[in-house]
Specification:
By secondary structure, this protein is an all-alpha fold. The protein contains 17 helices and no strands.
């Protein structure tokens, strides 16, 4: 990448920049999410519904690992964009090198702790109520995933920084390579070699290792505008603090997502089938079936969330650079354009989830077998229709959270990210399922969405007025 391409962030047409930066990020994030969806589909069709439930149990645990990875990768990426906007290239390279050191330390620590206490962690996140079969699938999957934890942290973190330093297409290519390798290895390991859910985990680890090697080679190349330098590889607590302060928002968001997933799994295992509106009864094995159904719905919703996150990532270097350069009019234009696109994407997800939820659910399990698989499809279809009720405006909230993060307003980003989950959703998940069963879990989510969207809108208007005032003061 050349210096001129970095400077173009402050001069080129906003729509063109957003398209150029967001398109690769959206393709990459969508592909990454599709990889998880197809991963689940292979497991569902190749192993069975119990394996889908096992993967759902691991979801909050994997979110914890993702939380630390996002904290370092996104935090460092935002700082790099700001430093480049200020014209301080060496400070950006010091941020890059410190982020790599931090990812190695965190990655090894999480791997060691989780492998040591894996059984206890699985029991905790299943509320001690999942069947032995479901827990065994979860254990087999996580044992292999955790062995590749350090590689995953480094790959995702460096890829965030590749994109933030002005290389969105290369960032996309690296993620697509990982997805392509995974999609080849998954069916090979599951169906050909008969490794079951272990094969799916192995395919994930291998594909991420290959992507890590490509990202590593980018920053080792002398052709890269931003690259590793020996003199920059010094652990600096101030730089680390800056990375963590911005990265704290996505970290807490992921930790809360993990907590919410654990609450949902526990509520489904405890109250699933007890409500008058529940499709599956306790006599039909509602507990594990509803956990699997939530796993399906969550992955479908996550696909559209990841696309919007990709859009956010395209906005990040534009907003970060121009905010650092005090080009506030360009900041405003970029964020409003991103909001419009985000709402459009979320509306598409809403439409599909309301019109063909059963078709989507059948992509994960073979309902033609009847029995539990058919019941899981029915439960997932009901949940999808309810959960996605407020989804169009969720797109607005996601973009606003990213905007606060990218201009360095960590407290606001954290507040917007946490209100839905901690302030609104968890209390609802604690109360409603006791009276409404699994139906109470489903309806908790759009209620929480409505409250948090109103709050995000209020904070966004307040911040935009401040930026407009700052812009006017510069003119004077």
């Amino acid at each position: 990448m050349s210096r001129s391409s970095t400077l173009s962030l402050g001069t080129d047409n906003i729509g063109k920049l957003l398209f150029n930066y967001a398109t690769p990020a959206i393709i990459a994030m969508a592909s990454s999410s599709l990889y998880h969806l197809i991963d689940s589909a292979f497991v569902g069709h190749g192993v069975g519904g119990a394996a889908i439930a096992g993967m759902a149990i691991t979801m909050p645990i994997m979110n914890i690992g993702s939380a630390f990875g996002a904290m370092v990768g996104i935090g460092a990426g935002a700082r790099i964009s700001l430093r480049l906007g200020e014209g301080n290239k060496f400070a950006a390279e010091k941020t890059l090198c410190n982020a790599v050191i931090l990812n190695i330390i965190i990655g090894f620590t999480i791997m060691a702790l989780m492998l040591t206490f894996l059984d206890e962690i699985l029991m905790l996140f299943s509320g001690g109520r999942a069947s032995a079969e479901t827990l065994e699938y979860a254990r087999q999957f996580m044992q292999i995933i955790l062995l590749g934890n350090v590689t995953q942290h480094l790959y995702l973190g460096m890829n965030d920084m590749i994109r933030a330093s002005g290389n969105p297409r290369k960032s996309m290519a690296i993620m697509l390579t990982s997805v392509a390798v995974n999609l080849v290895l998954n069916p090979l390991f599951i169906f050909k070699f008969g490794w079951g859910i272990k094969g799916s985990a192995a395919a994930t680890v291998i594909s991420q290792f290959i992507a890590f090697l490509i990202a590593l080679s980018h920053f080792c190349s002398k052709k890269s505008f931003l690259r590793f330098r020996r003199e920059a590889f010094h652990f600096d607590w101030k730089i680390v603090g800056n990375i963590l302060s911005i990265g704290l928002a996505p970290f807490l968001m992921n930790i809360c997502a993990s907590t919410v997933a654990a609450f949902v799994n526990t509520a489904m295992l405890r109250y699933g089938g007890s409500g008058i509106h529940d499709i599956v009864t306790r006599e039909q094995g509602a507990a594990d079936l509803y956990v699997g159904a939530y796993g399906i719905v969550n992955r479908v919703a996550l696909l559209f969330v990841m696309v919007i996150q990709g859009l956010n990532q395209g906005m990040q270097p534009i907003v970060g650079y121009n905010y650092g350069a005090k080009n506030f009019a360009r900041v405003r234009k970029a964020v409003f354009m991103t909001i419009g696109c985000g709402v459009t994407i979320a509306t598409l997800g809403f439409a599909l989830g309301e019109i063909i939820p059963d078709v989507i659910a059948r992509a994960f399990v073979d309902s033609s077998k009847g029995g539990n698989e058919q019941l899981m499809v029915k439960a997932a279809a009901q949940g999808m229709r309810i959960i996605l009720t407020m989804f169009p405006l969720v797109g607005f909230q996601i973009v606003v959270g990213g905007f606060f993060q990218y201009i360095g307003k960590a407290p606001l980003a954290i507040f917007v990210s946490l209100t839905r989950q901690l302030l609104f959703l968890i209390p609802l998940l604690w109360i409603l399922p006791r009276h409404l069963g699994a139906f109470g879990v489903w309806v908790s989510m759009p209620i929480a969405d409505t409250a948090s969207i109103i709050l995000a809108f209020t904070l966004f208007i307040w911040q935009m007025r401040k930026i407009k005032a700052m812009d006017k003061s510069l003119v004077k």
